[in-house]
């Protein structure tokens, strides 16, 4: 099974363990999955993929699996994963929201928002970690590690804690949103802040992994992507249940391009298993921030490789990445599904974040890139009005509270007094007369009015009596 969409199923090689093996996507060398720790090919350093002798069909999921297990979430898809259950919190089974106002504004047939920010640690990374940490247990490794723009570190810290393992995270100093560091901190990861960007953090962690010091759980680890491919299975199942069709397109933010690679793998496996026709595969459409868009540059040039960007900058810090390591898996995904890639400005990202928030869907900036990209590609005509589109939102609003405050309104100070609050929320009625009339009209609606009137009348009567007796 090459990276072609039409690749037929493969038979298991001698090195396979229960129908599962690792294969290099460049030179096709095959390896036993759990005998030794490896992240790339021994011969050519190409990326590795997990391969299965039995590609899945939709009937294999949930209660259709050959083993008992969860009916929802990542492990519903255990038949398409290397284990039946992992270190779980549990993860997956995220909402597929409607967003009718954005749908009407952009003008597409259907629009759904797959909100991966609703995972246990608030990002899609949990899907990868539940599998990755399970593999780490299988391999018997001690210390787990990752480089991260924030979300991977939060997920690694939580799943490592769950599995009772030591965790180490390398973060680009000053460029990680507060919520994410708070999570890594409380889940007790050892946090090292590197004076460099995400790509240099990843270079360091890869070197530590090669020296055998740590087990690498970035998306370079092929098992991480196995968990993340369940996003694709879930979207297809849910969309089909609601509309009787699969989405025409999935629009997603791109950083290291792990999700793009993982979704493409989900579709290839279903095509190989005969569950999905090639013509039914959604067009994978990647979105990057203008200040960190090496994948977009490659797609626009029709290139098969990306050029590493040394200087990257964007408010969407989660995708502030200049060297997407999964590009060799993700670019064929974009090309072979008829998708595309587009760059959006930070302002467009913030606008989209507000639009999603206006539908009750709270996301962090990187997530909103998908909706910003949809808007842009509709305007340019690259996405047609009759398409059914799913936008992936990858992380929760609370991950980046500073960005939320910047995009939203500011809290206003007010005195500890109802009148002061009213004066602020009804600014048209601030003259003394209007305020007095408002007080009267409120008093007339008050259940205390009869008592007040009665009390008033009594006072008038007593005053009258006093005047009479004095005279
Ligand atoms: N959206 C969010 C919220 C992310 O955290 C990331 C990646 C992406 C999108 C990009 O996904 O790498 O699969 O293309 N965050 C990583 C991290 C790099 O360290 O948390 P991708």
Write up this protein.
- This protein is α/β, with parallel strands linked by helices.
- The chain has three domains: 214 residues, Rossmann fold, CATH 3.40.50.1100; 99 residues, Rossmann fold, CATH 3.40.50.1100; 39 residues.
- The protein is built from 16 helices and 13 strands.
- The strands form three sheets. A six-stranded mixed β-sheet has the order 4-5-13-10-11-12, sandwiched between helices.
- Strand 1 and strand 2 form a beta hairpin.
- Helix 2 crosses helix 3 and helix 2 crosses helix 6.
- The longest helix has 22 residues.
List descriptors.
binds ligand F0G; Rossmann fold; alpha/beta; globular; 471 residues; four-stranded parallel β-sheet
Task: Label the overall shape.
Answer: globular
Q: Which residue ranges are poorly predicted, with pLDDT under 50 across at least 5 consecutive positions? A: none
Strand sequence of the main sheet, in spatial order?
4-5-13-10-11-12
Helix content, binned percent? 25-40%
Find the structural class using helix and strand composition: alpha/beta
Number of strands: 13
> Looking at CATH, which topology of the largest domain would you report?
Rossmann fold
Output the radius of gyration. Answer: 28 Å
């Amino acid at each position: 099974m090459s990276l072609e969409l039409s690749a037929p199923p493969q038979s298991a090689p001698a090195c396979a363990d229960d129908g599962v093996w690792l294969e290099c996507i460049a030179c096709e060398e095959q390896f036993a999955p759990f005998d030794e720790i490896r992240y790339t090919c021994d011969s050519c350093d190409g990326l590795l993929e997990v391969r299965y002798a039995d590609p899945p069909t939709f009937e294999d999921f949930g209660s259709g699996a050959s083993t008992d297990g969860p009916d929802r979430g990542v492990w519903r898809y255990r038949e398409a994963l290397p284990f039946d259950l992992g270190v779980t919190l549990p993860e997956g089974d995220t909402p597929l929201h409607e967003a009718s106002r954005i749908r009407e504004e952009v003008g597409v047939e259907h629009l759904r928002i797959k909100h991966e920010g609703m995972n246990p640690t608030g990002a899609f990374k949990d899907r990868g970690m539940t599998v990755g940490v399970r593999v780490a247990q299988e391999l018997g490794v001690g210390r787990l590690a990752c480089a991260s723009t924030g979300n991977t570190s939060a997920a690694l810290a939580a799943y490592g804690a769950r599995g009772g393992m030591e965790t180490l995270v390398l973060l680009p100093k000053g460029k990680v949103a507060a919520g994410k560091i708070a999570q890594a901190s409380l889940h007790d990861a050892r946090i090292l802040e590197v004076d460099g960007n995400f790509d240099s953090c990843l270079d360091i962690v890869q070197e530590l992994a090669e020296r055998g010091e740590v087990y690498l759980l970035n998306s370079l680890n092929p098992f991480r992507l196995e968990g993340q491919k369940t996003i694709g299975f879930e979207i297809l199942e849910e969309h089909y249940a609601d509309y009787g069709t699969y989405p025409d397109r999935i629009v997603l933010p791109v950083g290291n391009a792990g999700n793009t690679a993982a979704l493409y793998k989900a579709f290839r496996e279903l095509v190989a298993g005969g569950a999905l026709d090639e013509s039914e595969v959604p067009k994978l459409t990647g979105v990057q921030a203008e200040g960190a868009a090496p994948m977009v540059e490659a797609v626009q040039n029709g290139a098969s490789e990306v050029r590493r960007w040394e200087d990257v900058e964007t408010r969407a810090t989660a995708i502030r990445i200049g060297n997407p390591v999964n590009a060799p898996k993700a670019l064929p995904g974009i090309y072979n599904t008829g998708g595309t890639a587009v760059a959006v400005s930070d302002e467009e990202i913030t606008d989209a974040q507000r639009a999603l928030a206006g539908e009750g869907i709270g996301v962090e900036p990187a997530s909103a890139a998908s909706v910003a990209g949809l808007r842009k590609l509709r305007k340019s005509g690259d996405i047609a009005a009759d398409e059914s589109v799913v936008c992936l939102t990858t992380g929760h609003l609370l991950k980046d509270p500073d960005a939320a405050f910047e995009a939203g309104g500011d809290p206003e100070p007010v005195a500890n007094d109802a009148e002061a609050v009213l004066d602020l929320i009804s600014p048209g009625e601030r003259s003394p007369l209007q305020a007095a009339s408002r007080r009267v009209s409120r008093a007339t609606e008050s259940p205390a009015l009869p008592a007040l009137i009665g009390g008033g009348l009594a006072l008038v009567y007593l005053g009258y009596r006093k005047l009479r007796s004095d005279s």
